[in-house]
Protein backbone atom coordinates (compact mmCIF):
# COMPACT_ATOMS: atom_id res chain seq x y z
CA UNK A 1 0.00 0.00 0.00
CA UNK A 2 1.24 3.49 -0.70
CA UNK A 3 1.51 6.15 1.99
CA UNK A 4 -1.79 7.79 1.05
CA UNK A 5 -3.63 4.50 1.42
CA UNK A 6 -1.87 3.81 4.74
CA UNK A 7 -2.95 7.19 6.07
CA UNK A 8 -6.52 6.47 4.94
CA UNK A 9 -6.44 3.10 6.74
CA UNK A 10 -5.18 4.75 9.93
CA UNK A 11 -7.99 7.29 9.68
CA UNK A 12 -10.49 4.48 9.28
CA UNK A 13 -9.14 2.79 12.44
CA UNK A 14 -9.58 6.03 14.38
CA UNK A 15 -13.10 6.50 13.05
CA UNK A 16 -14.01 2.92 14.07
CA UNK A 17 -13.21 3.49 17.70
CA UNK A 18 -15.82 6.19 18.32
CA UNK A 19 -18.90 4.54 16.90
CA UNK A 20 -22.32 3.55 18.10
CA UNK A 21 -23.63 0.62 16.15
CA UNK A 22 -27.27 0.14 15.24
CA UNK A 23 -28.10 -2.39 12.55
CA UNK A 24 -30.10 -0.69 9.78
CA UNK A 25 -30.31 -3.62 7.36
CA UNK A 26 -29.66 -7.28 8.04
CA UNK A 27 -29.16 -9.96 5.40
CA UNK A 28 -29.51 -13.54 6.62
CA UNK A 29 -28.89 -16.67 4.58
CA UNK A 30 -29.25 -14.82 1.28
CA UNK A 31 -28.92 -16.89 -1.91
CA UNK A 32 -29.34 -15.45 -5.38
CA UNK A 33 -29.86 -17.42 -8.58
CA UNK A 34 -29.81 -16.23 -12.18
CA UNK A 35 -31.77 -19.07 -13.77
CA UNK A 36 -29.92 -22.23 -12.78
CA UNK A 37 -26.72 -20.40 -11.88
CA UNK A 38 -26.23 -19.49 -8.23
CA UNK A 39 -24.50 -16.11 -7.81
CA UNK A 40 -24.66 -15.67 -4.01
CA UNK A 41 -24.41 -18.35 -1.34
CA UNK A 42 -25.80 -18.01 2.16
CA UNK A 43 -24.75 -14.40 2.79
CA UNK A 44 -25.20 -12.98 6.31
CA UNK A 45 -24.33 -9.31 6.58
CA UNK A 46 -25.35 -6.46 8.87
CA UNK A 47 -25.39 -2.93 7.47
CA UNK A 48 -24.84 -0.46 10.28
CA UNK A 49 -26.73 2.80 10.58
CA UNK A 50 -24.90 6.03 9.66
CA UNK A 51 -21.88 4.12 8.50
CA UNK A 52 -20.45 3.50 5.07
CA UNK A 53 -20.13 -0.21 4.28
CA UNK A 54 -17.83 -0.98 1.34
CA UNK A 55 -18.37 -4.18 -0.65
CA UNK A 56 -15.11 -5.38 -2.19
CA UNK A 57 -13.89 -8.46 -4.04
CA UNK A 58 -12.77 -9.60 -7.48
CA UNK A 59 -14.89 -9.08 -10.57
CA UNK A 60 -17.93 -11.36 -10.72
CA UNK A 61 -17.89 -12.23 -6.99
CA UNK A 62 -21.44 -10.94 -6.49
CA UNK A 63 -21.00 -7.44 -5.02
CA UNK A 64 -23.51 -5.73 -7.34
CA UNK A 65 -25.89 -8.66 -7.05
CA UNK A 66 -25.85 -8.29 -3.27
CA UNK A 67 -26.24 -4.50 -3.47
CA UNK A 68 -29.28 -4.91 -5.72
CA UNK A 69 -30.87 -7.29 -3.19
CA UNK A 70 -30.99 -4.45 -0.66
CA UNK A 71 -33.68 -2.51 -2.56
CA UNK A 72 -35.05 -5.37 -4.63
CA UNK A 73 -33.59 -4.07 -7.88
CA UNK A 74 -33.06 -7.74 -8.74
CA UNK A 75 -36.85 -8.00 -9.07
CA UNK A 76 -36.41 -6.22 -12.41
CA UNK A 77 -34.31 -9.12 -13.76
CA UNK A 78 -36.71 -11.87 -14.88
CA UNK A 79 -34.44 -14.86 -14.32
CA UNK A 80 -33.26 -13.67 -10.91
CA UNK A 81 -34.49 -15.38 -7.73
CA UNK A 82 -33.59 -14.38 -4.17
CA UNK A 83 -34.02 -16.56 -1.07
CA UNK A 84 -33.22 -15.89 2.57
CA UNK A 85 -34.17 -12.77 4.44
CA UNK A 86 -33.26 -9.08 4.33
CA UNK A 87 -34.67 -6.65 6.86
CA UNK A 88 -34.82 -2.87 7.03
CA UNK A 89 -35.28 -1.68 10.61
CA UNK A 90 -36.28 -5.26 11.43
CA UNK A 91 -38.95 -5.47 8.71
CA UNK A 92 -38.62 -8.10 5.95
CA UNK A 93 -38.25 -6.21 2.65
CA UNK A 94 -39.24 -9.33 0.66
CA UNK A 95 -42.56 -9.62 2.48
CA UNK A 96 -45.31 -9.64 -0.18
CA UNK A 97 -47.09 -6.74 1.54
CA UNK A 98 -44.07 -4.44 1.07
CA UNK A 99 -44.63 -1.69 -1.51
CA UNK A 100 -41.51 -1.91 -3.68
CA UNK A 101 -41.82 1.70 -4.91
CA UNK A 102 -41.84 2.91 -1.32
CA UNK A 103 -38.96 0.57 -0.44
CA UNK A 104 -36.85 2.07 -3.25
CA UNK A 105 -37.59 5.54 -1.91
CA UNK A 106 -36.30 4.43 1.51
CA UNK A 107 -33.35 2.60 -0.02
CA UNK A 108 -32.17 4.76 -2.93
CA UNK A 109 -29.55 3.94 -5.53
CA UNK A 110 -26.78 5.71 -7.41
CA UNK A 111 -25.35 3.88 -10.41
CA UNK A 112 -21.91 3.46 -11.92
CA UNK A 113 -22.50 5.73 -14.85
CA UNK A 114 -24.16 9.06 -14.07
CA UNK A 115 -27.64 8.70 -15.58
CA UNK A 116 -29.53 11.99 -15.35
CA UNK A 117 -32.90 12.03 -17.09
CA UNK A 118 -32.99 14.03 -20.34
CA UNK A 119 -34.66 16.88 -18.47
CA UNK A 120 -33.62 20.06 -16.70
CA UNK A 121 -31.48 20.01 -13.56
CA UNK A 122 -34.57 21.08 -11.59
CA UNK A 123 -36.78 18.37 -13.08
CA UNK A 124 -34.19 15.67 -12.41
CA UNK A 125 -34.39 16.36 -8.69
CA UNK A 126 -38.14 17.12 -8.69
CA UNK A 127 -39.09 13.79 -10.26
CA UNK A 128 -39.02 11.65 -7.08
CA UNK A 129 -40.72 14.15 -4.75
CA UNK A 130 -43.46 14.58 -7.40
CA UNK A 131 -44.22 10.88 -7.83
CA UNK A 132 -44.15 10.35 -4.06
CA UNK A 133 -46.30 13.45 -3.42
CA UNK A 134 -43.74 14.97 -1.05
CA UNK A 135 -44.50 18.62 -1.81
CA UNK A 136 -47.90 20.28 -1.65
CA UNK A 137 -46.88 23.51 -3.36
CA UNK A 138 -44.33 24.84 -5.82
CA UNK A 139 -42.47 26.62 -3.02
CA UNK A 140 -42.23 23.39 -1.00
CA UNK A 141 -40.89 21.62 -4.07
CA UNK A 142 -38.39 24.45 -4.66
CA UNK A 143 -37.20 24.04 -1.08
CA UNK A 144 -36.69 20.27 -1.51
CA UNK A 145 -34.73 20.89 -4.74
CA UNK A 146 -32.49 23.47 -3.08
CA UNK A 147 -31.83 21.35 0.03
CA UNK A 148 -31.12 18.22 -2.02
CA UNK A 149 -28.71 20.04 -4.32
CA UNK A 150 -27.04 21.62 -1.30
CA UNK A 151 -26.61 18.26 0.43
CA UNK A 152 -25.15 16.88 -2.79
CA UNK A 153 -22.67 19.76 -2.84
CA UNK A 154 -23.95 21.02 -6.18
CA UNK A 155 -26.19 23.98 -5.37
CA UNK A 156 -23.64 26.74 -5.85
CA UNK A 157 -22.60 25.36 -9.22
CA UNK A 158 -26.13 25.06 -10.63
CA UNK A 159 -28.39 27.52 -8.81
CA UNK A 160 -28.33 29.96 -11.73
CA UNK A 161 -29.09 27.35 -14.36
CA UNK A 162 -31.69 25.05 -12.89
CA UNK A 163 -33.61 25.03 -16.16
CA UNK A 164 -30.67 23.82 -18.24
CA UNK A 165 -30.42 20.12 -19.11
CA UNK A 166 -28.86 17.83 -16.49
CA UNK A 167 -27.00 16.08 -19.28
CA UNK A 168 -25.07 19.32 -19.97
CA UNK A 169 -23.18 19.08 -16.67
CA UNK A 170 -19.71 17.55 -16.32
CA UNK A 171 -19.51 13.86 -15.39
CA UNK A 172 -18.76 14.62 -11.75
CA UNK A 173 -21.56 17.17 -11.56
CA UNK A 174 -23.93 14.70 -13.20
CA UNK A 175 -23.09 12.11 -10.55
CA UNK A 176 -23.72 14.65 -7.78
CA UNK A 177 -27.02 15.49 -9.54
CA UNK A 178 -27.91 11.79 -9.37
CA UNK A 179 -27.02 11.82 -5.67
CA UNK A 180 -29.27 14.90 -5.22
CA UNK A 181 -32.02 13.03 -7.05
CA UNK A 182 -31.62 10.08 -4.67
CA UNK A 183 -31.59 12.37 -1.61
CA UNK A 184 -34.70 14.31 -2.72
CA UNK A 185 -37.06 11.55 -1.58
CA UNK A 186 -35.43 11.44 1.89
CA UNK A 187 -34.03 7.93 1.73
CA UNK A 188 -32.66 6.20 4.81
CA UNK A 189 -30.13 4.09 2.94
CA UNK A 190 -28.21 5.00 -0.23
CA UNK A 191 -26.73 2.21 -2.36
CA UNK A 192 -23.86 3.20 -4.63
CA UNK A 193 -22.56 0.89 -7.34
CA UNK A 194 -19.03 2.06 -8.20
CA UNK A 195 -20.21 5.68 -8.22
CA UNK A 196 -16.80 7.08 -9.18
CA UNK A 197 -15.70 4.63 -11.85
CA UNK A 198 -16.61 7.03 -14.67
CA UNK A 199 -15.14 10.11 -12.94
CA UNK A 200 -11.73 11.77 -13.06
CA UNK A 201 -9.64 11.98 -9.85
CA UNK A 202 -10.86 15.47 -8.90
CA UNK A 203 -14.53 14.62 -9.38
CA UNK A 204 -13.88 11.35 -7.51
CA UNK A 205 -12.38 13.21 -4.55
CA UNK A 206 -15.42 15.50 -4.46
CA UNK A 207 -17.86 12.57 -4.45
CA UNK A 208 -15.80 10.78 -1.78
CA UNK A 209 -15.93 13.88 0.45
CA UNK A 210 -19.64 14.02 -0.15
CA UNK A 211 -20.09 10.37 0.88
CA UNK A 212 -18.36 11.16 4.15
CA UNK A 213 -20.67 14.15 4.76
CA UNK A 214 -23.79 12.17 3.83
CA UNK A 215 -23.01 9.50 6.40
CA UNK A 216 -24.22 11.79 9.15
CA UNK A 217 -27.79 11.53 7.87
CA UNK A 218 -27.85 8.37 5.78
CA UNK A 219 -26.62 4.80 5.82
CA UNK A 220 -24.48 4.06 2.78
CA UNK A 221 -23.46 0.83 1.04
CA UNK A 222 -20.91 1.23 -1.74
CA UNK A 223 -19.46 -1.24 -4.23
CA UNK A 224 -15.93 -0.28 -5.18
CA UNK A 225 -12.99 -1.75 -7.04
CA UNK A 226 -10.64 0.76 -5.50
CA UNK A 227 -9.01 -0.37 -2.27
CA UNK A 228 -7.93 3.22 -1.59
CA UNK A 229 -11.51 4.35 -1.97
CA UNK A 230 -12.82 1.65 0.38
CA UNK A 231 -10.18 2.67 2.94
CA UNK A 232 -10.93 6.38 2.50
CA UNK A 233 -14.72 6.37 2.67
CA UNK A 234 -15.90 3.36 4.64
CA UNK A 235 -16.09 2.36 8.28
CA UNK A 236 -16.95 -1.29 7.54
CA UNK A 237 -15.74 -3.47 4.68
CA UNK A 238 -17.24 -6.72 3.41
CA UNK A 239 -15.10 -8.98 1.23
CA UNK A 240 -16.83 -11.25 -1.31
CA UNK A 241 -15.28 -14.10 -3.28
CA UNK A 242 -17.04 -16.47 -5.70
CA UNK A 243 -20.48 -15.53 -4.41
CA UNK A 244 -19.64 -15.94 -0.73
CA UNK A 245 -19.04 -13.37 1.96
CA UNK A 246 -15.48 -14.12 3.04
CA UNK A 247 -15.48 -11.75 6.01
CA UNK A 248 -16.76 -8.39 7.18
CA UNK A 249 -15.32 -6.05 9.76
CA UNK A 250 -14.07 -2.58 10.62
CA UNK A 251 -12.33 -1.19 7.55
CA UNK A 252 -9.10 -0.51 9.42
CA UNK A 253 -8.86 -4.11 10.55
CA UNK A 254 -9.84 -5.51 7.16
CA UNK A 255 -6.94 -3.66 5.57
CA UNK A 256 -4.29 -4.29 8.22
CA UNK A 257 -5.18 -7.52 9.94
CA UNK A 258 -7.91 -9.49 8.13
CA UNK A 259 -8.90 -12.94 9.37
CA UNK A 260 -8.90 -14.59 5.93
CA UNK A 261 -5.97 -15.03 3.59
CA UNK A 262 -8.15 -14.23 0.57
CA UNK A 263 -8.90 -10.80 2.02
CA UNK A 264 -5.21 -10.27 2.78
CA UNK A 265 -4.28 -11.23 -0.78
CA UNK A 266 -7.01 -9.07 -2.31
CA UNK A 267 -6.36 -5.90 -0.31
CA UNK A 268 -2.65 -6.14 -0.97
CA UNK A 269 -3.29 -6.51 -4.71
CA UNK A 270 -2.19 -10.13 -5.03
CA UNK A 271 -5.32 -11.11 -6.89
CA UNK A 272 -8.44 -9.64 -8.44
N1 LIG B 1 -28.46 -10.18 -15.15
C1 LIG B 1 -27.68 -11.26 -14.97
N2 LIG B 1 -27.98 -12.42 -15.61
C2 LIG B 1 -27.22 -13.52 -15.45
N3 LIG B 1 -26.12 -13.59 -14.67
C3 LIG B 1 -25.78 -12.46 -14.02
C4 LIG B 1 -26.52 -11.24 -14.14
N4 LIG B 1 -25.93 -10.29 -13.37
C5 LIG B 1 -24.85 -10.88 -12.80
N5 LIG B 1 -24.76 -12.18 -13.18
C6 LIG B 1 -23.73 -13.15 -12.77
O1 LIG B 1 -23.68 -13.19 -11.35
C7 LIG B 1 -22.35 -13.24 -10.89
C8 LIG B 1 -22.08 -12.04 -9.97
O2 LIG B 1 -22.13 -10.85 -10.74
P1 LIG B 1 -22.06 -9.40 -10.12
O3 LIG B 1 -22.25 -8.42 -11.22
O4 LIG B 1 -22.95 -9.34 -8.94
O5 LIG B 1 -20.56 -9.38 -9.60
P2 LIG B 1 -19.64 -8.14 -9.18
O6 LIG B 1 -18.81 -8.62 -8.05
O7 LIG B 1 -20.49 -6.95 -8.94
O8 LIG B 1 -18.75 -7.96 -10.49
P3 LIG B 1 -18.03 -6.66 -11.07
O9 LIG B 1 -17.06 -6.26 -10.02
O10 LIG B 1 -17.35 -7.17 -12.30
O11 LIG B 1 -19.10 -5.63 -11.33
C9 LIG B 1 -21.47 -13.25 -12.13
O12 LIG B 1 -21.12 -14.59 -12.42
C10 LIG B 1 -22.35 -12.67 -13.19
O13 LIG B 1 -22.02 -13.18 -14.46
UniProtKB/TrEMBL annotation:
Pfam family, one: ABC_tran
One GO MF term: ATP hydrolysis activity
UniProt keyword Isomerase, yes or no: no
Keyword terms, alphabetized: ATP-binding, Nucleotide-binding, Phosphate transport, Transport
All copies of domain ABC transporter, residue ranges: 25-267
Gene source species: Chelativorans petroleitrophicus
KW Metal-binding (keyword) present: no
UniProt cross-references to PROSITE patterns, sorted A to Z: ABC_TRANSPORTER_1 (PS00211), ABC_TRANSPORTER_2 (PS50893)
InterPro entries for the chain: AAA+_ATPase, ABC_transporter-like_ATP-bd, ABC_transporter-like_CS, P-loop_NTPase, PstB-like
Gene Ontology BP annotations: phosphate ion transmembrane transport
Family that this chain belongs to: Belongs to the ABC transporter superfamily.
Protein name (database record): Phosphate ABC transporter ATP-binding protein PstB
GO CC entries: membrane
Amino acid sequence: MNMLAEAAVEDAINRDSARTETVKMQASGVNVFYGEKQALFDVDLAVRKNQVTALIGPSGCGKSTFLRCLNRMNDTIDICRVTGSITLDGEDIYDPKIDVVELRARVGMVFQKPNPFPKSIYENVAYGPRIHGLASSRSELDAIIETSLQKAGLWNEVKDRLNEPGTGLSGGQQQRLCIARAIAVSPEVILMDEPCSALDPIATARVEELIDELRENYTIVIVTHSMQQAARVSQRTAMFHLGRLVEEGPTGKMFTNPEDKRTQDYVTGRFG
